[in-house]
Every structure is written in structure tokens, then in C-alpha cells.
Amino acid sequence: MSLLELGLKKNSSFSLFLLILGASGLFPVLFWLQRSGRIDFWWGMSFNLVVLIGLSFILEPTAFSSLRRDLTAQTVQKIAWGVISTFFLYALFWLGREVVSSLFSFAVPEIKAIYAYKGEASNWRIGLTMLLVIGPGEEIFWRATLQRLLSQKINSFWGFSLSLFLYTLVHTASFNITLVGAALVAGLFWGGLYWWRGSILLNAISHTLWDLFVFLFFPLSF
Q1: For the chain, which terminal residue's Cβ has fewer other Cβ atoms within 10 angstroms, N or C?
Q2: What is the pTM of this model?
Q3: What is the spatial distance between Cα 159 and Cα 104, in angstroms, rounded to a whole number?
Q4: Which helix (H) or strand (E) holds 113?
């Protein structure tokens, strides 16, 4: 291995470390502030993702170039798969809500607590932050940046597994078992989708539409 290759490898490792450290700090703090009523969840989530995506593009310029390439190839097909996957995941969560709520007494109040994140925010503001920042932002950071970089550094299986673990782990700061389970299922789905298709456009459409369906159009609340 040449000195240049060794330097690039070390730089990539340091970038990954900073990105993981950033996510491990920002999201738990967001959940803590939300529980204490000190922050608007939607502004906080948007802030976190803007910071992490900006950090991603600064530390790993390949994240931006790979995103740009993805947006210009087989666009219609990716949009179609994104829409189809949204309906599949929504149906899966609807079924999961029925099963979990009938088996575990804590599930119903925890689902209500998740919808309490809406707070005093209007549906318009929630919808716009989901559409412009949260939906695409989560996929750009968790899948197109972390999962992709980990997959390149180790292999596809461990890249998928480690990014899924981190995605689920940060949700434990909510102290909501149902939310953690939902993050695990959604992370499995979107991580697997990205592993299969390698398209952030597809994933972003799926994630954004699912967010809108679950929180605004067809809520799964009680």
C-alpha cells in the first residue's frame, strides 16, 4: 500500500469516527431535550440532520458526488420503487401496531407518546420539515453516508449491520421501547433497500412518503 493510499485510508477512518461521534451525541441530546420539553422536536431533528449532512459533505466529498450521480440515472424507476416500498412498509407497520398493541400493555401509551412529539407544531410545518429535511436527510446520512462508507471500509454485510445498530442505538435515548423497535424495523427495511438497490433517491422517497403517511395522512395512533 502506498503512502497516499494509507493516508486516504486513515482520513476515511477519522471521518467515519467523527460522523459516528456526531450522530451519537446529537440524537440522544435531542431526545433528552424533547422529553424535558425544552425543544421543538421538528426544529431539533432538522438542525441535527443539517449539521450531520454538512459534516458528511465536508469530510467525505464522495458523498455528494455519489448522490449527484444517483439523481440522474433511472429516475422514474427509482421513484416507482420508492412509492411501492412506502406502501409495503406502511402495511407492515399497521400490522405490527395491531400485533404489538394486543400483546404488550405498554405499547399503546408509548405509541401515543411518539405522536406527542408533534407538540404544538402545525401539520404544515411538520410536513415541510419531513419533505425538505428529515425524510431525505436521514437517508443521506444513515444510508448514503454511514452505510456506504462502512460497506466500502469493511464489506456490505457489516456496513449494513453496523449502520443499523447505530441507527437503532440512538433511538434508545427516547426511553420508548416501541420507538426503538420501530427504528429497528425501519432501519432493517431501508438499510436492506439501500444494500439491494444502492439508490439514495429511492430510499429518500420511501422514507419521506412513509413519514408523511404515518404522521400526517394516515396516522397509526390510537
Answers
A1: N
A2: 0.92
A3: 32
A4: helix 107-115
Q: pLDDT of 150-192, one tens digit each?
A: 999 999 999 999 999 999 999 999 999 999 999 999 999 999 9
Nearest to 30 by CA among 41, 20, 22, 21: 41
Of 82, 107, 22, the closest CA to residue 58 belongs to 22
d(CA 155, CA 170): 23
Retrieve residue 108's grid coordinates.
Answer: 399503546
Q: Which residue has the cell 422514474?
A: 76
| Band of residue 6 on the pLDDT scale cut at 50, 70, 90 | very low
CA torsion through residues 155, 158, 161, 166, sign: negative
- Cβ of 83: how many Cβ atoms within 10 Å? 13
Q: Which three cell numbers stand for residue 218?
A: 394516515
